[in-house]
Write a structure and sequence with these properties.
The chain has 366 residues and is an all-alpha fold. It is built from 16 helices and no strands. About 5% of the residues have low confidence.
């Protein structure tokens, strides 16, 4: 993807879900105490997933304590949210796990109460990133316009959660997350395509920007693009007649214009200037009218909004289709790659390309 963007001389925007993954994984690796807890948690989960005796003992303890029979989740190195799920499940099942470990002849060290307190606070700090990752992994919703507001909301929630933390390691984790978020996502508002996509989303408009100057700059760019679209759609006006009705009057002294007039260049420039002025004024009116229109509820679909208002904002409707279609994450296409790997396997190695294509298409669209 990066190479194709370079060859086409396009600016590449990294997948937001993968960016969040890199931010959280680096922050976890930079926090030694939490890293040690993860190592201990992996060993505990590995024991209960590999040993039938340990697994049966856990199920027995869950039944005695009236807890749901749930398996522990093992961490996967490539996905940080698997770390979140592992710690969350381990924290929820901490009592049955501790009881099962105490009844097993095994040298696996259990987690202490302080460890569980750190896990609880760390999960609270990481929860906004979990929500953001889940939201950006959706397939059938507009995503590019969410990057700027999601970045701002993550900043706000992270500062709030970090302020409520009492464990030093959790505060340290929050600081690393803030640094990573700022270094990797801090320039989103300066990226024109993302800024215009956010402005053209009726759920966010200019309120989603943390920098008022960037919001005004985005509004200026969208007005210029709207005016350019208006000028390109304007039909050339019919040529004016060279004979003015007043020229028949003997009192007029205006010379009759010939086809090869001395003033051709000047008249053309006046006409073009007038067209630019009119288009800019009309574009400004259309953009202001859209900005002042009622905000769409955040859970609604912005594409439905633009479909219903295509007649009211005809030129912004064209720009909305251009910018809102950008995918901000590669998760959906990677899901297709994974599904293709399941369909085209050793046992089905003789599938023809057309059959494999049809099977993948049906799997993703039915």
């Amino acid at each position: 993807m990066i190479l194709s963007a370079q060859l086409l001389h396009l600016r590449h925007v990294p997948c937001f879900a993968h960016t969040l993954n890199l931010i959280v994984k680096k922050a976890l690796d930079q926090t030694p105490v939490i890293n040690e807890i993860r190592q201990k948690a992996r060993k505990i989960v590995g024991l209960f997933r590999s040993s039938c005796k340990a697994k049966d003992k856990l199920v027995e303890m869950q039944g005695l304590m009236g807890r749901p029979t749930l398996k522990l989740i093992q961490e996967v190195d490539t996905r940080w949210n698997s770390t979140f799920d592992m710690l969350q499940r381990l924290y929820d099942q901490r009592e049955p796990v501790a009881a099962a470990l105490s009844n097993l002849n095994n040298d696996t060290a259990p987690l202490t109460s302080i460890d569980y307190d750190i896990i609880q606070q760390s999960l609270s700090v990481l929860q906004p990133f979990k929500f953001a990752t889940t939201e950006m992994s959706e397939e059938k919703r507009v995503s590019a316009s969410k990057l700027i507001p999601l970045y701002r909301m993550l900043q706000h929630k992270l500062a709030q959660k970090k302020g409520n933390a009492t464990q030093e390691s959790t505060i340290q984790l929050g600081s690393h997350l803030q640094e990573g978020l700022h270094s990797r996502c801090g320039g989103y508002e300066g990226f024109r395509a993302l800024a215009l996509a956010t402005l053209l989303d009726p759920r966010f408009k200019n309120v989603a920007f943390g920098n008022a100057g960037k919001a005004q700059e985005a509004e200026k760019h969208i007005t210029l693009e709207c005016a350019s679209l208006m000028r390109s759609n304007t039909n050339p006006e019919p040529e004016m007649s060279t004979s003015d009705p007043s020229s028949s009057s003997p009192s007029t002294s205006t010379p009759v214009e010939t086809q090869d007039s001395l003033w051709d260049l000047f008249d053309t420039r006046i006409h073009q200037t007038q067209m630019i002025h009119n288009a800019t004024a009309d574009a400004t009116v259309e953009v202001k009218k859209y900005i002042n229109d009622a905000y769409l509820p955040r859970t609604h679909n912005p594409l439905t909004y633009w479909k219903e208002r295509a007649v009211i904002f005809p030129h912004l409707y064209v720009l909305a289709k251009k910018y809102l279609c950008m995918p901000a994450t590669s998760v959906p296409c990677e899901r297709i790659f994974s599904k293709a790997g399941e369909i085209i396997c050793k046992k089905r190695s003789r599938l023809s390309p057309s059959t494999a294509e049809k099977l993948i298409f049906l799997n993703k669209n039915l």
